[in-house]
Each structure stands twice: as C-alpha cells, then as structure tokens.
Amino acid sequence: MRFAFTDDQKMLRDTVREVLQRECAPDVVRAAWEGRPERAGAVWKTLAETGVIGMTASEEAGGMAMRELDLVLPVEELGYAAMPGPLVDTVAVGIPLLEAAGTEAQKERWLRPAIAGEARIVVSFEDQPIVAHAASAHVLIAERGGVAYCVPMSEVSVNAETSVDRTRELGRVPFEATARNQMREDVDAMGLFAMGRERATLGTAAQLIGLSRRMLDMAVQYAKDREQFGKAIGAQQAVKHRLANALIEQEFARPMVYRAAWSMATSAQDAEIHVSLAKIYAGRAARFVAKEALQVHGAIGYTIECDLHMWMKRAWALAAAHGDAAYHRERVGRHIL
Amino acid sequence: MDLDFTESENAFREECRTWLEAHVPREALPSGDTKKGFALHLDWEHQLFDAGWSAVSWPKQYGGREATLFEWLIFEEEYYRLGAPSRVTQNGIFLLAPTLFEFGTEEQKERILRPMARGDVAWGQAWSEPNAGSDLASLKSSARRVDGGWRLSGQKTWSTRAAFCDMAYGLFRTDPGQARHRGLTYFMFPLRAEGITVRGVDRLDGDEGFAEIFLEDVFVPDADVIGEVNKGWEVAMATTSSERGLSLRSPGRFMATASRLIDLYHRHRDRSDPILRDQVIQAWMDAEAYRWFTFQTVTRTVQGESIGPDSSMNKVFWSEMDVRTHETALAIIGDALELDEGSESAVDSGYWMKGFQFALAGPIYAGTNEIQRNIIAERVLGLPRK
What we know:
The structure holds 2 protein chains of 2 kinds. Chain A is mainly alpha-helical. Chain A is built from 11 helices and 8 strands.
C-alpha cells in the first residue's frame, strides 16, 4: 500500500499548473464567457506543445500512452483554472476512442491534429444528446443505437442550448448516420464508450476538486483581506468554521478521486464503483465549497463582477454532469445493499 | 501509487485474523466502563499482550511486533470487524506511550510500557480541570518542589475510567511565575496513593466511565516527570496530533459500524424508505472516504512528513460521521430505539442506543470540534487568530 503520486506525475501536474497560471488567468475565462474564446484557444495550443493533449494516445501515434492515474492531476489543474473547452472529452475519451475504434481514414484525418491541439473532439454518449463545447469542436464522436460515429462538425449544424456556465457552449448536434461517418464495426464500440464514460466521469470529478480548491483559495484570501469591525472577517469564528468545513469536504473528496484513478488505471475490481464514489464526493465538495465561498464573499460574491461566479457555475454544471449524486449513489447502493 | 496490499501485508492480515477468530470472546463483554466489565476487559488485554497483539507497532523489546503503520491499520480492521472488546488500555497505549517514545527516558520506557500494554497497570488521562477544558492552558493544578520529587495538588476531571485505573498523567503548573502554557510540567501520578481521592462520574449512558481526581500534596518522584520541567506543554502537544489523527480512531472501527448498519438495514427491510436507504449508503461511503483519507495520510507519515494540524480534519470527520451513522441506525429501529440494554426486546441488545450516546461524545472529547475547526482555519488555512 502506497497512496502517493510519483515524481513524474507531480511534474506533469506542475507543468500544466504553470501554463495555466501564466496563460489562463481569470480574465481569459471571463473573455470566453463573453464570447471571445481566442485566448483560451491559445492555452489549448500551449498545452498541446507540452504533450498533455496527446498524453493518452499511443506512442506510435505520437502520444505518451498514459493512463488515468497520470491524467487526474493535470485535469484537476484545469478545474483550478476553470479552463474553458472540451479538454477532458478530447484527452480522456475522444483520443482513446478514435485510436481504438476509428477507421484508418478517420484516424488519418483527426488523430494527429487532435494530438497537436488543432482539432478538438467532443463526445456524445447515447443518453447525453446535449453536448458541451459543441460550437468550438472540430469533430464529434457519438454513440447512437449501439453504434459509434465520428462526425466532422463542419458537416453538421449545432442547435445551441444555453448553459448557466456560458463557456460550456452547449448544443444538440443532429447528424445523419451514414456508412462514411460510422466507426469500425469489428471492435466493441459499446465497451469502449462505457469505458470512455467512466473516464469522463473521473475527469469531471478531478476538475471538481480543482474548482473546489480555487473557490476555497478565493474565499480564504477574501476573508484575510476584507475588514469589518476593524479586523479581517476571517478572524471571526463563524467565518473560520465555514471555511474549515469547506476544507474538510474537499480534502476527504480528493483521495476518493485519486483512488478511482488508480482503480481505472489498473483495471481493479469494482473500478466503476470507485468512480461513482469519486464523483459523489467531488461533486458534493465543489457544491459545498461554492456555497460557503459565496457566503464568505458576501454581496460582492453575488455579482458577475466577482470572478467567483465562473467557478461556481462550472461547479454546478459539472457536479451534475456524467451522473449526479443520485445516479451514482444508486450505483453504489446496488453494489453494497 | 499502489493501492493493493503487499504480500506481507496480506500475510499479516491472515495472521491476525486467524488469532482473533480463535480468541475473540463469543459473547460481548459487559461495558469496559463499568467496574465489572473493566476487570474482564483487562483479562482480555492480558491475552492480547501475551500473544503479541496488544501494541503491534511497538518495538519487540516492549512486547510489540514492530508492525508498520499499514499493518497496524490492518490489525484494527480485523479487530473491529470481528467485534473484539473495546480497548481499555487505549489511554496508555495510544496516548501516553507515543509521548514516552518521544520524550521518555530509557528507565521510564523499560519500567512503564510492558505493564501498560499488558493491562497490569491501567492508565487514565487527566487533562481537563473544572475550569480548564477547551482552554487547557488556563489549568490551576500545581506541583511543589520537594526533596526527590514533587507534591501535586489540585483537581482534574473527565478522566476516562480513572475510577478503575492505577495511574494517570497530566499537566501541572510547576512555575507559578509563568502564565498559561509556559511553566507547566508533564507528570505521571498514582491514583491509589496518599492524598488522592477519585470520584466516579456516570456518563450520559449511565456507565461510570468518567471520574474526578482530587489531589492534595500527592508525592511524585522525579522519575515520573516526562520531558523537561516547565516544558510540559510542548511534551503534551507533540502527541495530540496522533490522538486526533490516527491512533485514537482508525478506519477499521467505522468500517465495522457501517457493516453492522447494513446488516441492521437488511433485517428491517420492512421499514425501508428511499431516505433511510440513502443514509445507509452514505454511512458506508463515509467510512470508505475515511479509510482512503487515512491511507493517504499514513503514506505521508511513512514518507517522513509530519501531519500536524491536518489531523484536526480527521477528528472532525470521524466524530461527526459516527454520530450520523448511529442516528441512521436509530431511524431504522424506529420506536424500539428506546428499549435500552437489559431490555429483552431491545434490538441488538441496545447496541445502537448505547453507541449513539457514546458517538455524541466524539465531537467533544480529544479537543472539541469547535477547537479543531479553529485549528484548521488558523493553522491550515492561515486565517488570522484575532
């Protein structure tokens, strides 16, 4: 038993953290919110240069053949920065699916550009017809009627839906199921999508941990800076205890996420139950931290002038995405009861 | 990261399981917080020690088996899974011993540890005073220098099982010229000696698990001072994080409670509703969360990190989880919850009501959760003290 990441895994996290600190400040997220995603797009390119976008691709394809355990810390950093875009879809689900189930032509057209950061992949599972980041994606990988499709976004139109988190650019993407956009039939496409869904869930949980950490950092900083009654509000026990509770929720969720990553990376028994636990705890922590952070900020937190709102709204959306607490609790319940 | 147990860890589990399965009393002992139950628990402690299971992580020379921290956690999982008796040696083995290992002299360790772990000498803690609870540094009990030692006077309270114990330990003011946490000294003192009066206090559940200790000029030799004179605060604080952190409540206990809750739920299926079901699932998940959090913490410890104020998060988590788990059990039992131990119709012989009352103490003892939250806010998050 050894519950710790390797130096390599931490180094990759640090690389991503530095890129995001430098290039994905809150004003970049805010610009994406306001319909100007260009600078966030530039961050994507930088991340591709570090190899992070292609990390799950095989070495032959130009990737690093990395698994969930390598992925989870960098993805946590995406949450911390509230990085806009379908990075988890592309890296955790899209590239592995494309490599495993894509035809030669599909791989030829999309794999290398995806790894290079030039093509963004979004994924639509059978029961999730609304796709996040549909507007800025280049290719859709979709599961329809038990068959896998790879659809160039240039060939379809997106029926936009509005997310509470405007950077998510939700949309329905009706497409025609044709032989040309169908993926390979000689692979277990459904098995691959099932695996992809677990990975997307894990990636969502990891982002939620990052979102929690950032919201808590913001709230702690605010509590130290903001003075009332002649002293920092963070000196008041009522405020301290809220933030202490937020930290507890967050820190007990983290090991659940890391453990699920290990279970998936090692194909451990009951890995999907561990993913459910990760999602439940990370979602609950992020929603709880959001609420406490808002309360500590007071009225300024209740405005869109304050950056906090972008993190809160991402947290609300992701806490419910890929199975909310009720869905995953049911999965755990069936397992233990 | 490797979240599988190693072969030797699995072998260790097998070894303790085999011994425990053969030796754990078939029928639960009467509460260790009663005079009669305490004596029976000490008999059990003798058995544990003689087979080398009393303090598995200790050095062999003191009766341990030099188990790793992970092996200790494994032992605890098996111990509580099999419903073995509660540890009446707890305050010695898990609170005083770590202090002795860090600050004790060779003579003290040689003299004290083995009888402590065998239950031949039973130890109680004596931290709180009537007017010094959360604010421990305001304590008033004092020690006066005399030839060859000290004379202790004052009053201690909420001393766990002190009515049945032989010895206790606590802080006394040795320098009246210094204030608060300065000028205190860490003493071990006898509970059956000239000048000592111990008065048992019945806890919420009616057991005599508490006691008040009155000291009037009680003689303590220099050999029973731990660490430096007037540096008792530092000695006491050095090991509080182990109390809040790992040693006081390892995950095995809560995993066992969660399993029992699931069993209770199955036996009362007719009372099930979606809310109860969710609460049962939540209880199980929280025990899992605590287990994995602990494995992460222990890995940090093994790698040489000190855990420090992070241990306050542990204490808040397990104590509040334990209350919720017992509340869920009582909700399943319904109106039969009031049938107390000794009542023929009581569900599980009143185990859950008894456990519920004990769980309610969790957020209070070992530093109230309010104090823990202050520690988290100030020393982990860096919020201003005032």
